[in-house]
Each structure stands twice: as structure tokens, then as C-alpha cells.
């Protein structure tokens, strides 16, 4: 992006601060989207100033930026939406958590999704518990029927006459379940995003 | 008269129709962001938070209703021009039908 040059130092400083705020707000996005948003808002500022009397640089700039709005507020829905697109496209957990965090304020459903992802940690916890206490963690059967997937202390295992059926296969099985659930939840998130985009455009962007 | 209610209602109507307004402004002409905002203000006398137009245009682009292209300027600061796509034109035409039907209905009952 080519920066705008001001003759007045204060105007230059106000402009630079605003550009920094745009950059900070769009930081979660990929480089291309960041540059696109920055260039478009920069063009808005430049074109706006051209229409005004150049002797009042500071006043013009302050008014223009005021009308444009605070980047943190104006760009938030755009950043949240773009991040969600990116996250569901890549399956990258880092992007997914960022996207959910940005979208949490946009509806209960995103909180449900955050909760679904969090449940995956339950399975991770079971794997760690299995390594630490191999006899107390697993898939327990009682008299040939499913009893429990999880943790039972040794005493209860004996009393209830439970049999752990997976042994160390428990760990790869849990890993498999985690991966499958992760993909399923992410696909659901993607579907949800597509289904509600139009609704979002109405409810989110012009509030 | 309930000023507060009226203000909120007006603001909701504006929010709900901004996409319709922007598409209408782009119907016969391509515009870059700043110019588009000026056109909206000039033609509708609606004061919009200017920054909200850019997320809106991004949304319309994603929905395939408009396309955009960067056009280099001698200043070195390019402009991003928006144009209505065929889908955009068809969608706008349906939106207009809906709008006129709604207007007729409202006139009938008011």
C-alpha cells in the first residue's frame, strides 16, 4: 500500500495511527485479505481528502476518519467472517479457535461449537489417563454388554466384575474418534457458516 | 409520538435495505468505494456509517452479486471498482419486485 503524504505532521501522525489500528484489527487474516482491506480504506481516505479544501488537513482528516468509524468496530464482522471461512477451509485448529473466539459474540450457536470442540479434550484426557492408570481407564464391558467408556477405579472394576476390552488399543481408538469428531464438527461449522451467511449479512453488518 | 421507537425503527429499516440501495446504485454504473458512498448519500439522503459499506461490499462479492477490480491511478493509490454481475442484476430485479409488492401492500392498509 502506498501511504498518503500530508504536509502537516499532526495529520500524518493521526493517519499513521489509524492505519496501524486497521493493521492490528485485520491481523488474524491472511496477508492478501489484510492488504486488500488496507488498500481499500486507504483509497477511501485519499479520495475523501481530494474532495476537500487542502488547507485544513487535520480537520478534514479527523472528520473523514470519524465518518469512516473505528476500525475495531467497523471491521470486526468482516474479520470474524473471513477468519471463519479460512478456518473451515483449512481444518487448522489454530484458525478454528481464533474464528470461534471472534464469532462468540455473534450467537449462541458458536458457543455450542466451542463447547463441541472442547469435548474433544475429554478424549485427550482419557488417553493421558490411560497411560497413567492402564487398568482403570478404557472401554468396560459387563457380562458381554457395554458398560462404560471412561474411568472406573480398581475397586469398582473388581466389584462390578468389569472387563476392559480394548487394552492398549484404547489409545489409537480414541485418537481415531478424536480425528473423526474433529472433522465432523468442522464440517458442521462449515455448513452452518454457509447456511447463515445471508442472515448474518443482515444482522451483523449494520448493527 | 415515541421518538425513541421511531429512531430505532428507522435505523432497522436502513440496515435492512442498505444492500438493496447499494445494488440499485450500481445498476447502471460502476463505482469505487468512496464514490459509491457519495452516490448513496446523494440519492437517498441516508446517513450511513461509511465504514460499514466495505464489509457489505465484501459480502455482496462473496455472494456473487458484484465483482471488483483494482484500477491503478496516477496518484499511485488505486481505486477498487465494483460492478453488478448477471446474478446481481437478476437478484436485484427480484428484490425490486418484492419491494414494490411490499409498498403496494403497505399503501393498501395504511
UniProtKB/TrEMBL annotation, chain A:
Lineage: superkingdom? Bacteria
Provide this UniProt record's keywords sorted from A to Z: Membrane, Transmembrane, Transmembrane helix
The transmembrane segments are: 108-128, 166-189
Taken from the record, one Pfam family name reads HAAS
What is this protein called in UniProt? DUF1700 domain-containing protein
**Lineage, uppermost ranks:** Bacteria, Pseudomonadati, Bacteroidota, Flavobacteriia, Flavobacteriales
UniProtKB/TrEMBL annotation, chain B:
Entry-linked PANTHER family = PADR-FAMILY TRANSCRIPTIONAL REGULATOR, TRANSCRIPTIONAL REGULATOR RV3488
- What Gene3D superfamilies is this protein classified in? Winged helix-like DNA-binding domain superfamily/Winged helix DNA-binding domain (1.10.10.10)
Its name, as the record gives it, is: PadR family transcriptional regulator
Which InterPro entries does the entry mention? Metal_resp_DNA-bind_regulator, Tscrpt_reg_PadR_N, WH-like_DNA-bd_sf, WH_DNA-bd_sf
Entry superkingdom? Bacteria
Q: Which residues form the Transcription regulator PadR N-terminal domain?
A: 23-93
Q: Which organism is it from?
A: Neptunitalea lumnitzerae
The record, for Pfam families, names: PadR
Signal sequence region: none
